[in-house]
Write a structure and sequence with these properties.
The complex is a heterotrimer of chains A (736), B (102) and C (171).
Chain A: H1 11-27, H2 30-56, E1 65-79, E2 89-100, H3 102-125, H4 134-154, H5 158-176, H6 183-214, H7 219-229, H8 235-251, H9 260-263, H10 269-278, H11 283-290, H12 292-296, H13 299-320, H14 326-346, H15 350-377, H16 395-409, H17 415-429, H18 435-460, H19 468-473, H20 479-494, H21 508-515, H22 518-521, H23 523-526, H24 574-611, H25 618-622, H26 624-631, H27 636-710, H28 715-735
Antiparallel strand pairs in A: 1-2
Helix pairs in contact in A: 1-2, 1-4, 2-3, 2-4, 3-4, 3-10, 3-15, 3-20, 4-5, 5-6, 6-8, 8-11, 8-13, 10-15, 11-15, 13-14, 13-18, 14-15, 14-17, 14-18, 15-16, 15-17, 15-20, 16-18, 16-20, 17-18, 17-24, 18-24
Chain B: H1 6-26, H2 30-53, H3 59-89
Helix pairs in contact in B: 1-2, 2-3
Chain C: H1 2-22, H2 26-46, H3 50-74, H4 77-81, H5 90-111, H6 120-127, H7 132-143, H8 146-167
Helix pairs in contact in C: 1-2, 2-3
The chains are: A mainly alpha (736), B mainly alpha (102), C mainly alpha (171).
Chain lengths: 736, 102, 171
C-alpha cells in the first residue's frame, strides 16, 4: 500500500472531475454526488491508513518514502549569493514530488478521516440547499480542497507545499463565497483571499531567500544544509523564517492576519468545519513543524512565534466570550486554539503542537457540525439568544456537543486535556519557554472553558427562547448528519491517549505510552524537539549535529531529520536524569492541577452567570467599556479598513486620475501634435514643394516660347537659319 | 581695268549666289523659290567652269555637265511636288506649308 | 578687250537676276531667268567652254524654263497675284545674303591667289587638244567619268518616273 501513497492527493481529483463536469448536467443526482465525493475521501483515507500501518511497521530509520511523479521545473543555473553552504550557482529544479514520513502520514489521516466524516455530514446538511445546482459545485470544491490540502502535506519541497498552500486558499475563497448571491459572502471571500495573499507574499519571499541561500527548495537538502552550515541565530535563516511565519499567520489566522476567519463563517457550516477548523488553518502549523530545523536555528523567530501565538489566543478568547452568533464563537475559538498550537511550536515543542492540531481537529469539527445541526434544525437561526432548551428536541446533537465542549475546555480524561496540558507544560519548561507564556495559556484555558460553557448553556439548556414556529419544527437530524458527530465525539474522548504526558505515565497508561506515543512517532521529523525533556537545561544542545554534545553526555545521540538515527532521544546526562525528572514531575503536576482548576472555574462561572434562569445582560452592563471593546473586536477591522483598505482604494483612485489626466492626456496630446504637424507638413508640401515643382514647370513653359518660335513650320525660316549657319561657319573660317 | 582674271569670275559667282540665296529666303511662291534655286546652281556652275579654265584641268567642266543634269532632275521633281501640293490645297504659298509648326 | 565683254555680260547676269528675284509677276520672273541663263551661257563661251555653254542653253534655258512655264500655267497664274510676294523675313534675309556673298567672295578671292592670273598658258594647252572643248569633254566623260555618267542617267530616269508619279491624278 505504501507504494501507492502518491494516489492519495489524486483520488479526490476524480471526484472533482466527475462532479464538476458531469454531475450538474448529466447525472443530476445529489446522492450520487455526495457518495462519490465522500467515497473518494474514504478511499484516500484507506490508502493513507494502509500506508501509515506499513510505515509504522518499518524501522524508524527507514520511515521516509519519497516519490517523484514528474519533473516540473528544471532551469539553467541561477546564481546564489555567497553563503556558508558554498553553493555559487544552482539550477532551479523542482520536481513534482511527494514524500511519506511520520508527520505527513499523520496529517493525511487527519485530513482524510475528518474530511470524510464532514463530507458525509454535508450530504445531509446541503440537501435542501437552494439553488439546486449548487450542490454539485459544493462537493466539487470540497474535493478540490481536499486534493490541494493533501498535496500540501505530502509535498517534498517548499514549492510543492506552496502549490497546496495557494490551492487551499483558492478553495477557501470559492467555498466562503459559496452563497455568492449574498454580498456579505462575497465580501468575506474577498477578505479571506486578500488576507491570505498578504501572507503568501511573505511566504514567497521566505521561499526565495531559502532558494538563494541553499540553491534548492527540497526539504531534506535544505534542512541538512542548514544544520551543517549555520550557527544559531544566523541572519539569513532568521529572515527567511520570519517571512515564513508571516505567511503562516495569514493562513492560520494569527495576529495580524486573523481578521478573515470570523467573516469566513458566511460559508456553509461543513466548510467552516473542514477548512476553518480542522485542516486549512492548520497548514501554517504544519509548515512551522515541517521546517522546525530552520525555526530552531533562529531563536528570534521562535520567540515571535510563541508571543504571536499567546497573544492571539488571548485576544481571540476574549472576543469569543461576548459573541452571540453561534458560529462566531466557534470561529474565535479556532483562532484561539491555533494560537495554542503556535505557542507550542514557538517554545520548541513541535510534536505537541501537532498533537493539539489533531485533537483540535476532532473536537472543533464536532462542535462546528453540531452547531450546524442546530442551525439546520432551526432553519438557519444563528443568534444564541433565540435558542435554548434545544436538548429536548435534539438529544444526540446535545450529547455530542457536550462531549466537544468538555474536550475543548480541557476537562481531564478527554482529548483536549492531554494536548492542552502538554502545551502548557512546555510553555513553562520548554527550551524556549517562559512562565508568563504559561500564565497566558492558562488564562486562555479558563476563558475557553467559560465561553464554551456559555455557549452550551445558551443553546441547549435553560428556557426556550425560540420562536414558536421554529420550535414546532425542531427535530433531530437524520443519521447521515448525526453519525459523523458520534464518531467525532468518540475520537474526542479517546484521541488524546496517544500523547500521555510524562507525569501521568503510570500503570496502564505507561504501557500505553510505550506502545503508542505521538511525540515519539514524530521524532524523525521533529528531531529532539518533540517536548521538553526533564533535565534539559541548554537549548543549544537540542540542535541536531551542528552542536557538539555540549552537555557532555556520553550517550548523547541527537536525532536528526530524515530518519537515519535511532528512535530514542537521550539528550541529557543519564546520571542527573532521574533527579531532574523528579523535580519536573512535581512541577508538572502542579501546573496541571492549576490549569485544570482554572478550566473548571471557567465552567463554573459560566454556569453561574448563564445557567440559572434567563441569561442576564448584567455582564454587558457591569463591564461596559470592556464589554464594548470586546464586542467590537477591539476595532481591529475598522483599523485595518482605515489604514490599509481605504488607503489602497485611494491609491487606486489616485492612479486612475493619473492615468486619465496624465497618461491619456499625454497620448491625446501626442495625437493632437501629430495632427498639427501633419497639417503643417501638408501646408509645406502644398506651398513649397508643389510650388517649386509648378514653378519649374511654368518657368520652362514660359521660357519655351523662344524655342517654340523657332519651330515655325515654315521652310523659309529654316532656310534662313541654314544661311545663318553658313555665315557663322564662313566667319569662323575667315577670322579664326 | 586689269586683265580679266579668275577673281572676277569668282566674285561674280559669289554675287550671283548671294542674289539666289536672297531670293530663296524672300519669295513666298514655291515656284519662285525653285527658280532662285536655279540661280544658285548657275553661280556654282560659273565657279566650276572658271576655275577649270584657269587650271590645266577639265574636271570642272565635266562636273558642270553633271550639275546641270542633276539640276534638271531636281527641277522636275520639285515641280512635281508643287503640282501635288497645289492639288492638295490649291495654293502655292510656302507659308501654307506649316504642318511642322511647333 | 575680254574684260569689257565680261563686264557687260556680268551686268546682264546680275541685273536680270535681281530683276527676277524682285519681280512681282511670275512670268516676268521666268523671262528674266531666261535672260540670266543665256547670259551665263555667254559667260561660258567667254571661258572657252563651248560645250558647257551649249548644254546650259539647251537644258536650262530650254528645258527647265519650259518646265517652269508649264507648271506656272497649270497652277493658275492669277492666283499668284494675290499673294503678298515677299516674305516677312525679307530684310534680315537680304542683309544676310549680301554679307554671305561678300564673305564668300573674299574667301574665293584669297584662295585664288595660287592660280595664275593669265589664262594664256593653260588655255593654249587645252586648245591643243583636237576637236577643242567638246571632244575633250566627250573623251573624259566616257573614260574617266563613265560611272558618274551612267549614274546621272539613272538619276534622270528616276527623276522622270518620280515626276510622273507625283503629278498623276490617279494611279
Amino acid at each position: 500500500m505504501l507504494e501507492y501513497f502518491w494516489l492519495i492527493p489524486l483520488i479526490p481529483l476524480v471526484g472533482v472531475l466527475v462532479n464538476g463536469l458531469l454531475a450538474s448536467r448529466y447525472i443530476r443526482s445529489q446522492l450520487f454526488t455526495g457518495v462519490l465525493a465522500s467515497g473518494c475521501m474514504l478511499v484516500a483515507f484507506a490508502i493513507g491508513l494502509g500506508s501509515f500501518v506499513q510505515l509504522a511497521g518499518m524501522p524508524v530509520a527507514d520511515r521516509h518514502v519519497e516519490i517523484e511523479l514528474y519533473d516540473w521545473i528544471s532551469t539553467s543555473l541561477v546564481h546564489m549569493h555567497d553563503n556558508a553552504v558554498g553553493v555559487a550557482a544552482a539550477p532551479l529544479h523542482v520536481p513534482f514530488g511527494l514524500q511519506f514520513d511520520p508527520l505527513s502520514a499523520l496529517m493525511v489521516l487527519v485530513v482524510t478521516g475528518v474530511g470524510f466524516l464532514i463530507h458525509v455530514y454535508a450530504i445531509g446538511y446541503m440537501k435542501h440547499d437552494p439553488p439546486d445546482k449548487g450542490f454539485y459545485r459544493f462537493f466539487t470544491y470540497l474535493n478540490l480542497f481536499a486534493s490541494f490540502m493533501l498535496i500540501l502535506v505530502l509535498g517534498n519541497s517548499f514549492a510543492m507545499m506552496f502549490i497546496g498552500w495557494e490551492g487551499v486558499g483558492l478553495c477557501s475563497f470559492l467555498l466562503i463565497g459559496y452563497y455568492y448571491q449574498k454580498k456579505s459572502a462575497g465580501d468575506a471571500a474577498k477578505k479571506a483571499f486578500v488576507a491570505n495573499r498578504v501572507g503568501d507574499a511573505a511566504f514567497l519571499i521566505g521561499m526565495f531567500t531559502l532558494f538563494f541561500t541553499f540553491g534548492t527548495l527540497d526539504y531534506d537538502q535544505i534542512f541538512s544544509a542548514a544544520a551543517a552550515n549555520y550557527e544559531v541565530g544566523a541572519g539569513v535563516i532568521t529572515f527567511a523564517t520570519m517571512m515564513l511565519l508571516i505567511g503562516a499567520t495569514g493562513k492560520s489566522a494569527q495576529i495580524p492576519l486573523y481578521v478573515w476567519l470570523p467573516d469566513a463563517m458566511e460559508g456553509p457550516t461543513p466548510v467552516s468545519a473542514l477548512i476553518h477548523a480542522a485542516t486549512m488553518v492548520t497548514a501554517g502549523v504544519y509548515m512551522v513543524v515541517r521546517a522546525n530545523v530552520l525555526f530552531s536555528l533562529s531563536p528570534a523567530t521562535m520567540t515571535a512565534v510563541a508571543v504571536i501565538g499567546a497573544l492571539t489566543a488571548l485576544m481571540a478568547a476574549s472576543i469569543a466570550m461576548v459573541q452571540n452568533d453561534i458560529k462566531r464563537v466557534l470561529a474565535y475559538s479556532t483562532v484561539s486554539q491555533l494560537g495554542y498550537m503556535f505557542l507550542a511550536c514557538g517554545v520548541g515543542a513541535y510534536a505537541v503542537g501537532v498533537f493539539h492540531l489533531m485533537t483540535h481537529a476532532f473536537f472543533k469539527a464536532l462542535l462546528f457540525m453540531a452547531a450546524g445541526s442546530v442551525m439546520h434544525a432551526l432553519h438557519g437561526e444563528l443568534d444564541m439568544w433565540k435558542m435554548g432548551n434545544v436538548r429536548k428536541y435534539m438529544p444526540v446533537t446535545h450529547k455530542t456537543f457536550l462531549v466537544g465542549t468538555l474536550a475543548i475546555a480541557g476537562v481531564p480524561g478527554l482529548a483536549g486535556f492531554f494536548s492542552k496540558d502538554e502545551i502548557l507544560w512546555n510553555a513553562w519548561a520548554g527550551p524556549n519557554g517562559a512562565p508568563w507564556l504559561w500564565a497566558v495559556g492558562t488564562l486562555v484555558a479558563g476563558m475557553t472553558a467559560f465561553y464554551m460553557t456559555r455557549m452550551l448553556i445558551m443553546v441547549f439548556y435553560g428556557e426556550s427562547r425560540m420562536d414558536e414556529h421554529t420550535e414546532s419544527h425542531v427535530h433531530e437530524n437524520p443519521h447521515v448528519m448525526t453519525v459523523p458527530l458520534i464518531i467525532l465525539a468518540i475520537l474526542s474522548i479517546v484521541g488524546g491517549y496517544v500523547g500521555i504526558p510524562a507525569n501521568l505515565q503510570v500503570g496502564p497508561l505507561a504501557a500505553l505510552h510505550d506502545r503508542v506515543d505521538i511525540v515519539r512517532w514524530l521524532e524523525p521529523v521533529t528531531g529532539g524537539h518533540g517536548e521538553a525533556d526533564p533535565g534539559e537545561a541548554d537549548a543549544h544542545a537540542m540542535l541536531p549535529e551542528s552542536a557538539t554534545p555540549a552537555a557532555g553526555s556520553e550517550a548523547a545521540q541527537i536525532v536528526a531529520r530524515s530518519g537515519n538515527e535511532p528512535a530514542f532521544v537521550v539528550t541529557a546526562q543519564d546520571g542527573g536524569a532521574e533527579e531532574h525528572a523528579e523535580d519536573h514531575t512535581a512541577l508538572e503536576w502542579t501546573l496541571m492541577l492549576i490549569s485544570t482548576a482554572i478550566a473548571l472555574a471557567g465552567i463554573g462561572l459560566a454556569y453561574r452567570i448563564y445557567g440559572r434562569g434567563q441569561p442576564a445582560d448584567e455582564p454587558a452592563k457591569r463591564f461596559g467599556g470592556l464589554y464594548s471593546a470586546l464586542w467590537n473586536k477591539y476595532w481591529v477591522d475598522e483599523l485595518y479598513d482605515a489604514v490599509l483598505v481605504n488607503r489602497a482604494k485611494d491609491l487606486g483612485k489616485g492612479l486612475w486620475v493619473f492615468d486619465d489626466a496624465v497618461l491619456d492626456g499625454t497620448v491625446n496630446g501626442v495625437a493632437e501634435a501629430t495632427k498639427q504637424s501633419a497639417a503643417a507638413s501638408n501646408e509645406f508640401d502644398g506651398r513649397v514643394i508643389d510650388g517649386t515643382v509648378n514653378g519649374t514647370a511654368s518657368t520652362v513653359w514660359s521660357g519655351s516660347w523662344i524655342f517654340r518660335a523657332l519651330q515655325t513650320g515654315m521652310v523659309q525660316n529654316y532656310a534662313l537659319v541654314i544661311a545663318i549657319g553658313a555665315f557663322v561657319l564662313v566667319s569662323a573660317y575667315l577670322f579664326l | 581695268m586689269a586683265t580679266l582674271g579668275l577673281n572676277h569670275y569668282l566674285l561674280l559667282s559669289a554675287l550671283l549666289f548671294g542674289i539666289g540665296v536672297a531670293g530663296v529666303l524672300i519669295r513666298r511662291n514655291v515656284i519662285m523659290v525653285l527658280m532662285c534655286l536655279e540661280l544658285i546652281f548657275n553661280a556654282a556652275n560659273i565657279n566650276l567652269v572658271a576655275v577649270s579654265r584657269f587650271r590645266p584641268d577639265m574636271t570642272g567642266q565635266v562636273f558642270t555637265i553633271f550639275t546641270i543634269a542633276v539640276a534638271a532632275a531636281e527641277v522636275a521633281i520639285g515641280l512635281g511636288l508643287v503640282i501635288a501640293m497645289f492639288r492638295n490645297s490649291t495654293t502655292v504659298n510656302v507659308d501654307e506649308l506649316h504642318l511642322l509648326k511647333g | 578687250m575680254e574684260i569689257y565683254a565680261f563686264y557687260a555680260i556680268a551686268a546682264v547676269v546680275l541685273s536680270s537676276a535681281v530683276l527676277m528675284v524682285t519681280s512681282r509677276n511670275l512670268v516676268h520672273s521666268i523671262v528674266y531667268m531666261v535672260i540670266s541663263f543665256v547670259a551665263v551661257g555667254a559667260l561660258f563661251i567667254l571661258l572657252e567652254a563651248e560645250f558647257v555653254a551649249a548644254v546650259q542653253i539647251l537644258v536650262y534655258a530650254g528645258g527647265i524654263v519650259v518646265l517652269f512655264l508649264f507648271v506656272v500655267m497649270l497652277v493658275n497664274v492669277t492666283e499668284t497675284y494675290q499673294v503678298e510676294f515677299l516674305h516677312r523675313q525679307w530684310l534680315p534675309a537680304t542683309v544676310l545674303s549680301m554679307i554671305l556673298a561678300a564673305q564668300i567672295g573674299f574667301l574665293l578671292w584669297g584662295g585664288a591667289g595660287s592660280l595664275p592670273a593669265d589664262p594664256g598658258a593653260s588655255a593654249s594647252a587645252l586648245r591643243a587638244v583636237d576637236g577643242g572643248n567638246t571632244e575633250t569633254l566627250g573623251m573624259m566623260l566616257y573614260t574617266d567619268y563613265l560611272l558618274p555618267f551612267e549614274v546621272a542617267s539613272v538619276l534622270l530616269l528616276v527623276a522622270m518616273i518620280g515626276a510622273i508619279y507625283l503629278s498623276k491624278k490617279r494611279i
